[in-house]
Each structure stands twice: as structure tokens, then as C-alpha cells.
Design goal:
single chain; alpha/beta; two-stranded parallel sheet; 7 helices; globular
Length: about 180
């Protein structure tokens, strides 16, 4: 529910307009409650757009950590992680894992992630942080999970892309805007 993850929700409007149907949105019930309260104009049916305007059409789907669900025909396993005072979810989607806003990956989650080919993992900066992995912690986590390729995301402006790339072990690299990842089946 942090702004860097949900504040762009209004930009989903174009997808519902183009597809002429609601865009499915998946999240923990607490996160969905936050969205309903914070973006009432989207979710309250009594709030009708002014003629000539629109609002995103979104269909909320609660998920539970550890309980797989299907989206777009793909099975997804949500995993719970601590992020300060909030719980967040990361996802295993076949050979891909996507974990952002995590401070630690407990052993149970590491077991669920073993065998992934591509791991997308947050790493804020080199020094310690109370709610995010540091780059060093991310390297240790990636190594213990053992993905063939790890992409570090949620990086800050403090770390230059090329200098970070040069400092990382083989198989771990910084992600970047526009990156396309081929995922083996």
C-alpha cells in the first residue's frame, strides 16, 4: 500500500478502456481495503464519472499467502514477507520469482523459491536499511536461493548502474527500466 507501488493506480484506466472490461487486481485483503478507502472514486459505484470522462475499471481479488491462484491462465504462488509494520507478498510464477519490499527471506520462503531460474529481488543500497534488503543481503539471499539469474530492483539513486554491475557476482545484475526478461518454460 506504499505510494511507490500503488500511486499509479489511475494509470490502469487506459487498460480497462482499451480492453472494454475490468482489469483484475490481486492483493492481500488489507491492501485491497486500503485501495478501496484511498481511491474511493474508483471503487465506489455511487461515484459516477462526469460525462466525457472515465475512471479505471478494476476488479479486486483477495489472495492469501501460501495459497496459489490463477491469473491470465498462469498459476501464481503468493508468499508473505515482513516490510516494516506491514506484510507484503512476493510471488513465484513458475520459474520466476518477484520479491520487492522485503527485508528478509525466511527459510520457508527460500524453500518455496528453490529451482527458480530468474529471481527479481529488491536491494536498496549497500548500507543496512530497516525494511529493505541491502545489496549485500540481496547477494546472500540470491546465492542461497540459487537462481541462474538474479535482477536487483528497487535500487536508489545512490548506486550507479555500471558501478553496481561491476561489483556484483556473476549471475546477479541490476535491473533497469525497459528490461525484457525471457523466462524458460
Amino acid at each position: 500500500e506504499h505510494a511507490d507501488h500503488v500511486a499509479g493506480i489511475d494509470d490502469l484506466r487506459i487498460f480497462s478502456l482499451k480492453q472494454r472490461r475490468a482489469v483484475p487486481v490481486y492483493g492481500l485483503e488489507a491492501t485491497l481495503d486500503f485501495l478501496r478507502a484511498s481511491y474511493r472514486y474508483i471503487f465506489d459505484p455511487a461515484m459516477v464519472p462526469v460525462p466525457g470522462t472515465s475512471k479505471p475499471k478494476l476488479e479486486l481479488h483477495p489472495i492469501e499467502p501460501g495459497v496459489p491462484f490463477r491469473a491470465a491462465g498462469v498459476e501464481i504462488l503468493p508468499l508473505r514477507f515482513e516490510h516494516g509494520h506491514a506484510d507484503v507478498v512476493g510471488f513465484r510464477i513458475g520459474p520466476l520469482a518477484y520479491l520487492t519490499d522485503v527485508k528478509a527471506v525466511p527459510e520457508e520462503a527460500r524453500r518455496a523459491l528453490r529451482g527458480v531460474s530468474v529471481l527479481v529481488l529488491n536491494a536498496l543500497w549497500w548500507r543496512s536499511h530497516p525494511t529493505h534488503l541491502s545489496i549485500g543481503e540481496a547477494i546472500e539471499t540470491a546465492t542461497s536461493i540459487g537462481a541462474e539469474r538474479t535482477l536487483l530492483t528497487h535500487l536508489t539513486h545512490e548506486t550507479g548502474h555500471e558501478s553496481l554491475r561491476a561489483a556484483l557476482p556473476e549471475g546477479i545484475e541490476p535491473a533497469h527500466d525497459g528490461l525484457v526478461v525471457e523466462i524458460p518454460e
